[in-house]
Amino acid sequence: MRMHSTSKQLWRDVQVFDGLAQLDEAMNVLVEDGCIAGLWPSSAFDEALAQGAVEAGRGGVMTPGLVDCHTHLVHAGDRAGEFEQRLEGVSYETIARNGGGIISSVRATRAASEDDLIAASLPRLDALLADGVTTLEIKSGYGLTVADELKMLRVARRIGELRPVRVLTTLLGAHALPPEYAGRADDYVSLVCDEMIPAAVAEGLADAVDVFCEGIAFSPAQCERVFQAAQHHGLAIKAHAEQLSNLGGSALAARYGALSADHIEYLDEAGVRAMAEAGTVAVLLPGAFHVLRETQLPPIELLRHYGVPMAVASDANPGTSPICMPTLMANLACTLFRLTPREALAGMTTHGARALGLPDLGRIAVGGPADLCLWDIQQPAELAYAVQAGRLRQRVFNGAITYAR
Ligand code: DI6
Ligand code: FE
Fold first, then answer.
1. Contact 382, 357 (CB under 8 A)
2. Distance between CA 275 and CA 253 in Å, rounded?
3. Are 68 and 355 a contacting pair, CB within 8 Å?
4. Exposure check for the chain: N or C terminus, fewer CB within 10 A?
5. Model confidence at 1: pLDDT above 70
6. 3-state DSSP call for residue 221?
7. What integer pLDDT is reported at residue 314 of this predicted model?
8. Distance from CA of residue 182 to its chain's centroid?
9. Cβ pair 148, 68 in contact under 8 A
10. How far apart are CA 403 and CA 307, in angstroms?
11. Average of per-residue pLDDT values in the chain
């Protein structure tokens, strides 16, 4: 006799966005042992396959669990005052040059304990989860000392253990020059390369290394030193590049086999080509574009033309994107960058996962992991079309329903 396992769960009559496109007809989805065990048209209900399965849901839209591949979720303090300054006409760069901006979050984050940081960051994480995130990346970069960067990474790992979610961590020691290193940027880069990266590796705290390649941050030559150290230690590489100007940071990152180059509003055709050749994902961050009222659009047509995969992420951070709502990012990617809803959703699933070096995630495919969202909508495009909290009916992480409304 066949064993009836209660770990078999069946969703019936769902519209499926599989991570790249919407499937043609309503589907049944079977989940077993943390994996997607079956996916077939609901018009052809298969008794044998579903035998012993518990009906877990019916109707609605199913997508892969969302992947937010670029966040600065862990930090202390807030920057509402700078938001007001910017409304009075002071630019983000001017604020940064006057010791505000990233450095003001550094002051607050250095002063915070691990527990303070957990308390500050959990509500932001919960907001992401309630909007469908099952995997996210969290960067350091507001510590800028060895101890404070490791503290941030430890907090990122710990909040991932406090919730049913997968967290990848990225060491962003080269985010800004800390004031104690004023005029000694190369010495600070040495600290990042010779002490921070090895210490993070020794504690197993970092999955990747990131840099901010920009006039107000680090030069391509300095970023290259960080990439070399990352490569030496076997860490994946990512870059904030071409956000405010074109320094060639994306092409440089691509030469080092970077998983992704992020922001890229000022990216040129040579940079797009370099990314295409290296398989580097373009991470679009429409939240920062929106908040900074940027006017230079990322080269979407060129990225399409050269077949560079486009991910979409929140960039959740206290300065340029204080937004913890991934479905709003899908909307902004469409309204501001003219992505199609299909592209925006692929950017928050399949391509977001690829930007983290996790190509099995962000898909609905038989044999793949069961990280899923069931939404109370009729078709996937509504996730990008309407801005509305509370549409998530169920969130499935590793095959278990971890949120149900
Ligand atoms: N680019 C950004 O948009 C964030 N970091 C970066 O390198 C901004 C971080 C902040 O303003 O706190
Ligand atoms: Fe960022």
1. no
2. 8
3. no
4. N
5. no
6. helix
7. 98
8. 31
9. no
10. 36
11. 96
Measured CA to CA, the distance from residue 253 to residue 269 in angstroms comes to 15
Yes or no: say if 153 and 169 are a contact pair by the CB < 8 Å rule. Answer: yes
Q: CB count, 10 Å around CB of 293?
A: 8
314: how many CB neighbours lie within 10 A of its CB? 32
85 alpha carbon – ligand 1 mean position (Å): 17
Residue 404 pLDDT grade (very low, low, confident, very high; cuts 50, 70, 90): confident
| Ligand 1 atom 2, closest CA | 320
Neighbours of ion ligand 2 (CB under 5 A): 315
- Tell how strand 27-32 and strand 35-41 pair up: antiparallel
Phi, psi of 45 (to 5 degrees): -55, 125
pLDDT in tens, 168-193: 999 999 999 999 999 999 999 999 99
Taking phi over 0 as left and psi of -120 to 50 as alpha, with beta for the rest, 192 belongs to: alpha
* Ligand 1 pocket, mutate which of 242, 265, 317 (most atoms under 8 A from CB): 317
Note the pLDDT of residue 4. Answer: 40
Task: Answer whether 320 contacts ligand 1 (Cβ < 6 A).
Answer: yes
Residue 273 neighbours by CB under 8 Å, 6+ apart: 306
Q: What is the pLDDT of residues 17-40, one digit of tens each?
A: 999 999 999 999 999 999 999 999
Residues whose CB is less than 8 angstroms from the CB of residue 380 and which lie 6 or more positions away in sequence, other chains included: 15, 17, 22, 61, 63, 341, 342, 345
Tell me: the pLDDT tens digits for 304-353? 999 999 999 999 999 999 999 999 999 999 999 999 999 999 999 999 99
